[in-house]
Inverse folding.
């Protein structure tokens, strides 16, 4: 987890990413760095971003994302922290928080 508090990141993980604005701020693949757009789909290992009129599939694992849930907030999170199907990621977090 990066920069944002652990509590904030944990709350963010249980949110739906589709519809959020995202920018890739670091990656092992230099071609991904600086890409930004709206998240239109998410799967186990990939996030699909709408960049202009084009769709770009980005793997989660090698990237660090900067999500903007609203105009003033930014949440930086490593892709390895959000690997998994959205519904499984949410269930997993809720199980851990109940213990």
């Amino acid at each position: 987890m990066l920069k944002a508090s652990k509590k904030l990141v944990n709350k963010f993980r249980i949110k739906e990413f589709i519809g959020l604005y995202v920018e890739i701020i670091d990656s092992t693949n230099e071609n991904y760095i600086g890409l930004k757009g709206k998240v239109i789909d998410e799967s186990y290992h990939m996030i699909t971003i709408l960049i202009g009129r084009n769709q770009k599939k980005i793997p989660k694992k090698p990237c660090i994302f900067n999500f903007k849930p609203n105009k003033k907030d930014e949440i930086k999170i490593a892709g390895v922290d959000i690997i998994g199907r959205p519904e499984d990621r949410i269930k997993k977090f809720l199980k851990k928080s109940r213990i």
